[in-house]
Amino acid sequence: MTATIKRILLGEQGLLVLFVLAFAVVSLTVPNFLTERNILGLLQSVVTIGIVACTMMFCLASRDFDLSVGSIVAFAGMVAVMVSNETGSIPLGLLAALLAGTLVGFVNGVVIAKLRINALITTLATMQIVRGLALIASDGRAVGINDPAFYSLALSRFFGVPTPVWIMAILFAIFAFVLNRTVFGRNTLAIGGNPEASRLAGVDVDWGRIGIFALQGLVCAVAGILLASRITSGQPNAATGLELSVISACVLGGVSLAGGRATMSGVIVGVLILGIAENVMNLLNIQAFYQYVVRGLILLFAVLLDTLRSRALGRR
């Protein structure tokens, strides 16, 4: 295999080729896959992963991790439902959820950047704390939504496409612009590439990392609100294991675990590959036990791809 072919297979083009081949094979072999109902269902099923991946991309690109995203999603959904029920105002509930998610992300960022505690340990601790707060606030039970208008956030459609899918697409576009066209995006990649060199170049590395985690919390809150609306209740145990799926999608999409490399187009393809894998397993009635194995294999494959990409680029 020539160096050129290797670069193509390990780059964005290779990922796109893999996606197109997988889509073609699945379309030809799996009954009902290409129906409008199934495609829309597939897109809806990846909304939570896709939205959270928008900012996990920035975390990974800056050499950090956030394992608390699933807990923040559940907690924000709980806050949105409980505040809406208590005040009778859905906008207040949504605002409270967005503030709660942003606050958790901000605390993560401060602890990591200012107190110099490893991101893996910090967010692992936050994952437990925030999940515990959600369980305490609800006494471990689902909290029903009093106002049916809350459901319209997830159940409404625009041009026949569910609103959450449009929100995910808009966030993809926004964060693609942020990554490629703004100082914040360039600084994120610079921090991930070489934090010390970025600091010497005048980049405020600490506040850059804090901003990334605060943004992560805000986006998780958006995902939590939409999830609560879709499942018609605030669930303290919602989004369990979400962090692994999101990291898998990002790494599969070319975001480097070593930092400094990320593309939104790659992340989108990574999210869709995960969604197709899960959708096909459901269409083929594969038992949930085996689905865990497949998810684990996809994560392992994503990390292997990242290693091969890094070697090809001379990063390791």
From TrEMBL:
Q: Could you identify this protein by its name? A: L-arabinose ABC transporter permease AraH
Q: Which organism is it from?
A: Antarcticirhabdus aurantiaca
Taxonomic path: Bacteria, Pseudomonadati, Pseudomonadota, Alphaproteobacteria, Hyphomicrobiales
Gene transcribed to yield this protein: araH
